[in-house]
Structure formats: structure tokens, C-alpha cells
Amino acid sequence: MDDELFTFKGIPYAAPPVGALRWRPPQPVVPWQTLRDASWQNRDYCVAAGCGDPGRFSEDCLYLNVWTPNVEPGTPLPVMVWLHGGGFSIGAGSLDPYRGKALAAQGVVVVTLNYRLGHFGFFAHPALDAQYPPGKVVNNFALLDQIAALQWIQRNIPAFGGDRHNVTLFGESSGACSVLSLCCSPLAEGLFQ
Fold it and tell me: What count of other Cβ atoms lies within 10 Å of the Cβ of residue 148?
């Protein structure tokens, strides 16, 4: 609880993109059976090789945060999904300026998320292309991460009081560019309105 709001931080929406999953589309997270601390999310950014403070980055970064005024509203609440900016090379949904508290206090469910950045999010190479079936090459891992987060939202947001049929995307800078890309991607069809 945070000023009469429910806050859930550091929820994994996909498996950590490390090791053999580094240059792969996001994979489903392994479900857990134990209690998970959702009161904080580390402030590590997704890795972007060559950018920012190297001590503040982690490849294990596919997490999201949820702020909601009510987990059991009489009517499901609208959902607003924030995509952070940073030139696709730095930033995180967990940064203080992106806290969803103020918007959630207005009666909406707010979701912020991390996605892979820099080379880890946008690396394309013929060696990677050869590993996919013909016609299935998509090496925009950042966009695929965002789509995986939106799929997670479709499956799980009702448990946070949200309406999966009333999801709005918004962002700034590269986050706004991501919104435009998601609007054009057939892979994101039906995941937001």
C-alpha cells in the first residue's frame, strides 16, 4: 500500500534474457509457487552496451510494475501502460519520475515496464537470422519484449482490477516511438486499444 494505492513492483513478465536467451525473443517466465516480494524493483536498467553507468545495468531486466487504486473494483478500471524514453539506450520503467502513483490516484491502473536496450534490444546479424524459420526473422528484441509485457497484461491485469479491453499506451521520446511501432506491428494486434 502506498497512500491508499496498491503497488506491485518487480513482476517478471518474461524469463531473464541471459545466456542462451540473450539473442532470442522473450520466453515465458517460469511460474513460482512461493511468495514473491513485490514491494520494490531494483533500479538497474536493462543493459545497453556502451551507455551510462555500467554499475547500474543488468541483463535480467524484464520486469514490470503495477499501481492500482483497487484490486477488486465494481467495474474494471482503465489501464495505462508507460513506455520509458532514453533513446533506446538508457532508462527504466522503475525510475522515480515514472511512478504511477499520481495517475492511479485518478482511478486507473498504471503499468511501467523495462525492455532490452541498445545492442541487446536491437541487434540484427545474419548469424541470428539463420536460426529462425524463413519469414520469421524478428530481431527487434525490445519491441518483442514490449509485446510480451502487453501479452502478460492481457492475461493478468484483471487480478489488479484492470480492464484488459481498455489498455492505453503512452510514452516519451523513444517510448513514444515504441508506441508508434506497436501500433504498426501485426504482432501487437488486439493487445491495446
Answer: 23
Delineate the domains of the chain, giving CATH numbers in brackets: 6-26+40-188 (3.40.50)
Phi, psi of 183 (to 5 degrees): -65, -30
Residue 117's closest CA among 173, 66, 180, 157?
Answer: 173
Q: Which residues contact residue 134 at a Cβ distance below 8 angstroms, ignoring those fewer than 6 apart?
A: none
Strand-strand pairing, 109-113 and 77-83: parallel
The residues facing 169 across adjacent strands are 81
Helices (H) and strands (E) in the chain, counts: 5, 7
* Nearest one of 28, 30, 63 to 46, comparing CA atoms: 63
pLDDT in tens, 129-185: 887 777 777 789 999 999 999 999 999 999 999 999 999 999 999 999 999 999 999
- 27, 22, 62: which is closest to 41 by C-alpha? 62
- For the record, the C-alpha cell of 141 comes out as 528484441
Residue type, 101: K
